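FAQ: What does a multi-protein file look like?

Like this. Sequence, then tokens, then the next protein.
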Amino acid sequence: MNTLYFRYAIEVERSRSITQAAEHLYMAQPNLSKAIKELEEMLGIEIFQRTSKGVIPTKKGSQFLAYARNVLAQIDKMQALSQSDSSTKQSFNLSFPRGSYISQAFTLFVAELDHDKEIELNIQETNSMQTINNVAKGSFSMGIIRYQNIYENYFKDYLVENELESQPIWEYDVLALMSENCPYANANEFKLEMTSRLTQIIHGDNTIPYIDPNIGRKSTKSESLYNITKRIYVYERCTQFDLLSAIPSTFMWVSPIPQIVLDRYKLVQRKCEVPNSRYKDVLIYQKGYEFSGIDKLFIDKLFEAKNEVAFKEYN
């Protein structure tokens, strides 16, 4: 069985689109569709199904993909045996936004490393502009940036200006995160006007290319409409969780969060109709950068953590 097809299937799972996966793999879409079909015929199962959320794995497809990731990880380890002793160090670095599913992916990634060998990992949680600068100047090999869809063109232009490549990870609507003891945690429907009675926690260093950095401190139209005048600006993730957990009258707009984190801090996340609430997370790297086996392992864990929260129903 051609293990290259395994990589094709994993890329389709990441992209949730045959067309986008073909672009990422630098191959024609009909050729990728044919390869996936041949793989399904060899296995005797349907790996993917088309839904309103895109191309997603079937139940048996998810099982196959888990096995495929393990097989490829073992192949990467075997290939590493042929490298010189100087390359046995497991080195990895990443600059990324304060996203809980990304942190969860990093934990899963570290658990998969060979702890009998030398390990050197360097990660930095920061804003998207700093991440772009980190990767552009070579301080970090890869980065993950996050932006509202309404500002996508600004970020795309800035990436081109810095000669960086990018791959989408996923797109989502933000959720309202709050304590289990928040007065609105169990409301039948969480409405935007409820936020006027709460204190909003905000990451204080969010910036957008070509736009005055002070824009992050200005009220948006929706905030003005619902009179959100109470804000706490924070710059790291643990503080925000501690505040949300201890102060029931606080809330924060976040990307979907793994259940293990919600349980740890006794938090809940609620869906809410919010103007311009669509966000995108994107993987970035320098042009010509070749992903190492360690990089690929992290990316696999990243999409594994993402899929855990992406396919969950929120109310």
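And here is the next protein:
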Amino acid sequence: MWGGARLGWVLPGLLVVIMFVILSSGEASYQANLVSVEGSLTEDQRQDVYQHLVNLADQKQNILQIKAMLEQVDWVHRVEVSKSWPDSLTVLVIEETPIAYWNDDAFINLDGKVFASRFQLGGDLAQLYGPVGSEKLVMQQYQRLNNALLKSNQSIDVLALGDRGGWEFTNNSGVQVLLGKDDIMERIQRYLQIVENGGLVAYMDSIRLVDARYSNGLAVSWKSQEMDLAFAKNYKIQRELRL
């Protein structure tokens, strides 16, 4: 006996002995002696779910309570629990999918939910920053801006919402772009138009920063002064490009 339940560790996909008393309508109850955890999970994730189920088996639960409690596990996105004949529970677990890193210490999903997971390695994900409570807003802005940038073969590596409401991002070429607080989509469209039509697209690797917080243009800061002079000479423009 362990925590009021019997536990038998077996290979994934097989039933595990965990004794549940499941409440149904009224005061009637249903005894489930076996639990099967399904889903595209690693063995460590599956064992983590079993451990949570063991902890839940100490008291009577209904299926909706089991579902709700498992969905509180940080790395779990959704759970479906169903009774299987004659005395089993089937638990389908779908894990969270990270879209980006959040504030250096967590992940964020497509809906703007922040979560931690020791089972996620992360990999080549964008980095999003924002104040507490801005998670959904930042994720929505990330999707809008990234979709706009993809048309010019750019993507966002870093997107940040400052404490004062200003937006900025760093693209996949390492160029930092300041967007400010207002007219964000108008400014990103102006930035893309000037990049494509003003000849900047071929010089992305030489640009350090673009300030798009202008009503009719943008300012470019180059990584080297020589590059600044060469571009100005070749295209007969000043550092502030105008439509």
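Q: Is there any per-entry metadata?
A: Some entries carry free-text notes. For the entry above: Residues 1-12, 229-243 have pLDDT under 50 and may be disordered.
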